[in-house]
Amino acid sequence: MKHSVLLDTSFLVRLLNDEDKLHENALSYYKYFLENDIVLKVVTHFTVSDRIKADACLCRSELY
Questions:
Q1: What is the pTM of this model?
Q2: Which of 17, 22, 28 is nearest to 57 (CA)?
Q3: For residue 31, what pLDDT is reported?
Q4: Which residues contact 64 (CB under 8 A, 6 or more apart)?
Q5: What's the DSSP call for residue 18?
Q6: Residue 59 or 9, more confident
Q7: Long-range contacts: 44-53, Cβ < 8 Å, 24+?
Q8: Residue 59 and residue 64: Cα distance in Å, rounded?
Q9: Is the separation of the CB atoms in 5 and 12 below 8 Å?
Q10: Which tens digit of pLDDT belongs to each residue from 29-60?
Q11: How many CB atoms are located within 10 Å of the residue 7 CB?
């Protein structure tokens, strides 16, 4: 069984904002999820309402 995690809006905002005090924390979790093949799930509303930032967030090459 594959593990998955639901990423809430605050996680995505912190991941996108490199000036946020918890950005590095969010980035570390994000890398962990990717390295361990953990499925990332997001709320569709966030993805639609802030599509450009969400797309950047979910693109592995943008954060590595």
A1: 0.67
A2: 17
A3: 96
A4: 31
A5: T
A6: 9
A7: 46/9, 46/12, 53/12, 53/16
A8: 9
A9: no
A10: 999 999 999 999 987 665 555 555 555 555 54
A11: 20
Task: Return the pLDDT at 63.
Answer: 47
Q: Beta-strand (E) ranges in the chain?
A: 4-7, 39-42
d(CA 43, CA 25): 21
C-beta separation of 41 from 7 below 8 A? yes
pLDDT at 53: 57
Instruction: Specify whether the CB–CB gap between 38 and 4 falls below 8 A.
Output: yes
Q: How far apart are CA 46 and CA 25, in angstroms?
A: 21
Residue 50 CA to residue 64 CA, distance in Å, equals 21
